[in-house]
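Q: Could you fold this chain for me?
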Amino acid sequence: LHWITEFIGTESLQKLADLGKPLVWTLHDERAFTGGCHYTFGCMKYRNTCSECPQIKENLSWLPEHNLKSRNKLRDIPLTFICPSQWMQSQLIHSRIFNPKTHRSEVIPYSIDLEKFKPLDTRRINSLKKDYDIDKDSVCLLSGSFSLEEDRKGINYIIQALRILSDILKNRKGSK
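A: Sure. Below is the predicted structure, expressed as structure tokens.
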């Protein structure tokens, strides 16, 4: 199962479990074991209850706790959770949803196809720079994020790295 929260309900998961086949669920965020947060921003209320959620408007304050209570049914369904990091596994294991009697959890980091994503040789880099009218001596970096305002996506680290890189390049030019 891959990122199925809210697409497949607990009743459907129970029917799948009743088939007697192992169920393996890959987690990509915290949504499966919270009252609705994809990321809790450090809030630990999902471990017991999601009442008084700091991320939701007052007129919907009942919703996260309701969601978490309905997810409580997951405790009885035999599941193996695959987490992409130790951090995600720790969040899961400390949640109200995780049941060590019926659940397993394994960490399998995201993988990258190193045949597809690998450094280009100098000729290819120069060819691409020429195609896109980029100066041959320019340094090119690519970064992506759904939202640059999202601190946890690391834009501050990128800015810091660019400043360091800029200083290094200025020092190199000055030493020639």
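A (continued): DSSP finds five helices and three strands in the chain.
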